[in-house]
């Protein structure tokens, strides 16, 4: 990975996490202030030994730490990672967290998770409002699918039309591999030359599919025969084709004066002019015209040669749609976590990663749509991980508060201190494990 690529991906990761951390901590900060609870510190990133920036306003110190692993708010009278035993040894004061009613403390603790969930819903809603939702209908691929050697090894063939997985229709083509992984599909039903054929999914196949997906690939793609004309089905925004003004249904006629009557000849000519400006002759309706796109480094315009469906939403319609999308994304993530414990084909050492793995999810070029989509997904992950009933996380505090509300008995401060220590050890251990796997893969390439 080049230095430029590291900076692009790293910059997106840091900006995304900074947004998520600041808003998460605001979710604790705002209700704490509303309930007149003193907040001593509000920090983006951690500040052991020193901070990069700090300023005090009122009773709160605002700052930026040097260790970009998250952030925190330090609330007076709360047993947290600061382990301020000196303060806890004094009698409770009216402005302290521990002096507040249990229901107020509960609202303060769930505030961060609530903000992260609402943020994800809001981002998805705004994306749907501005861009709509585009997908490739599985049933509308006129030439079926094109499969690689992995797909052919289980009996799939070029031109097969996917009907269902375990007799359940998957309407969106891009979701087929993910559905197979999350639900452990055992069979694929295809239309082959007008006849329905069942293709068995053997043991070990799912794991190999996951390996391909980690590299950004897939074992099947929409099929585009070499002998048919190349007609644009979808222009991807922000890439060379869109910048050149190409449109859906444009037919490719010639590249730099060389006739390209079919897909094979068109793609062959394009590969000769990587990162160059070309004269591209096209047929738009009944008109022949020439455009001058600048190809990317692989000699592509980044077009889709098949039809897509786009669902458009009004401003008000986008909000329930955004919530549905967020719930669907969160459900998929939970199913992925479940596979770590129940699937024989999913190995934790291959599927778990730290900050480097997250950074790799961001695109190679800065793309705001991809950035916000991934930020929304990370916001859901942050909410889910924080609400787990592990001491030191928000969910651990919530668990003890629910116990207090139900039983009327508050756990002793000594118990909470020990629980906090245990939780910090667990969280630190998981952090070291996940990032250690990234380092291992970086050194040994596994």
Automatic annotation (TrEMBL):
<keyword id="KW-0482">Metalloprotease</keyword>
<dbReference type="Pfam" id="PF02163">
    <property type="entry name" value="Peptidase_M50"/>
</dbReference>
<dbReference type="GO" id="GO:0006508">
    <property type="term" value="P:proteolysis"/>
</dbReference>
<comment type="similarity">
    <text>Belongs to the peptidase M50B family.</text>
</comment>
<dbReference type="InterPro" id="IPR001478">
    <property type="entry name" value="PDZ"/>
</dbReference>
<feature type="domain" description="PDZ">
    <location>
        <begin position="187"/>
        <end position="286"/>
    </location>
</feature>
<protein>
    <recommendedName>
        <fullName>Zinc metalloprotease</fullName>
        <ecNumber>3.4.24.-</ecNumber>
    </recommendedName>
</protein>
<dbReference type="InterPro" id="IPR004387">
    <property type="entry name" value="Pept_M50_Zn"/>
</dbReference>
<dbReference type="InterPro" id="IPR008915">
    <property type="entry name" value="Peptidase_M50"/>
</dbReference>
<dbReference type="InterPro" id="IPR036034">
    <property type="entry name" value="PDZ_sf"/>
</dbReference>
<feature type="transmembrane region" description="Helical">
    <location>
        <begin position="377"/>
        <end position="403"/>
    </location>
</feature>
<feature type="transmembrane region" description="Helical">
    <location>
        <begin position="106"/>
        <end position="129"/>
    </location>
</feature>
<keyword id="KW-0479">Metal-binding</keyword>
<keyword id="KW-1133">Transmembrane helix</keyword>
<keyword id="KW-0472">Membrane</keyword>
<dbReference type="GO" id="GO:0016020">
    <property type="term" value="C:membrane"/>
</dbReference>
<feature type="transmembrane region" description="Helical">
    <location>
        <begin position="415"/>
        <end position="434"/>
    </location>
</feature>
<dbReference type="GO" id="GO:0046872">
    <property type="term" value="F:metal ion binding"/>
</dbReference>
<feature type="transmembrane region" description="Helical">
    <location>
        <begin position="6"/>
        <end position="26"/>
    </location>
</feature>
<dbReference type="GO" id="GO:0004222">
    <property type="term" value="F:metalloendopeptidase activity"/>
</dbReference>
<keyword id="KW-0378">Hydrolase</keyword>
<keyword id="KW-0862">Zinc</keyword>
<keyword id="KW-0812">Transmembrane</keyword>
<keyword id="KW-0645">Protease</keyword>
């Amino acid at each position: 990975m080049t230095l430029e690529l590291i900076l692009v991906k790293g910059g997106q990761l840091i900006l995304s996490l900074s947004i998520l951390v600041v808003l998460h901590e605001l979710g604790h900060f705002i209700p704490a202030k509303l309930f007149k609870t003193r907040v001593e510190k509000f920090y983006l990133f951690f500040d052991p030994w020193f901070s990069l920036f700090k300023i005090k306003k009122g009773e709160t110190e605002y700052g930026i730490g040097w260790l970009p692993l998250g952030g925190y708010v330090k609330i007076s009278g709360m047993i947290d990672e600061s382990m301020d035993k000196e303060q806890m040894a004094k009698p409770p004061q009216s402005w302290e967290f521990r002096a507040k009613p249990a229901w107020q403390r509960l609202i303060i603790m769930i505030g961060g998770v609530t903000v992260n969930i609402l943020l994800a819903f809001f981002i998805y809603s705004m994306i749907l409002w501005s861009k709509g939702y585009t997908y490739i209908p599985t049933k509308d691929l006129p030439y079926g699918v094109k499969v690689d050697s992995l797909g052919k090894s289980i009996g799939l063939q070029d031109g097969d039309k996917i009907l269902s997985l375990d007799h359940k229709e998957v309407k969106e083509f891009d979701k087929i591999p993910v559905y197979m992984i999350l639900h452990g599909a055992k069979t694929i039903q295809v239309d082959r030359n007008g006849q329905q054929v069942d293709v068995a999914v053997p043991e070990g196949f799912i794991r190999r599919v996951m390996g391909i997906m980690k590299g950004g690939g897939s074992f099947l793609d929409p099929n585009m025969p070499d002998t048919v004309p190349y007609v644009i089905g979808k222009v991807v925004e922000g890439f060379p084709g869109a910048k050149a003004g190409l449109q859906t249904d444009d037919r490719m006629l010639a590249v730099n004066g060389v006739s390209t009557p079919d897909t094979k000849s068109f793609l062959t000519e394009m590969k000769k002019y990587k990162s160059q400006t070309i004269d591209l002759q096209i047929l738009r309706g009944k008109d022949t015209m020439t455009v001058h796109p600048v190809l990317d480094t692989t000699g592509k315009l980044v077009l889709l040669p098949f039809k897509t469906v786009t669902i458009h939403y009004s401003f008000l319609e986008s909000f329930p749609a955004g919530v549905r999308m967020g719930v669907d994304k969160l459900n998929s993530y939970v199913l992925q976590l479940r596979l770590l414990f129940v699937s024989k084909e999913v190995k934790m050492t291959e599927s778990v990663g730290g900050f480097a793995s997250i950074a790799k999810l961001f695109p190679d070029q800065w793309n705001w749509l991809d950035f916000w989509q991934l930020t929304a997904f990370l916001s859901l992950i942050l909410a889910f991980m924080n609400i787990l009933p592990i001491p030191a996380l928000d969910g651990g505090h919530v668990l003890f508060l629910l116990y207090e509300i139900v039983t009327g008995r508050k756990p002793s401060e000594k118990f909470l201190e020990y629980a906090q220590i245990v939780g910090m050890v667990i969280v630190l251990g998981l952090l070291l494990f996940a990032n250690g796997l990234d380092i291992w893969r970086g050194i040994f390439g596994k």
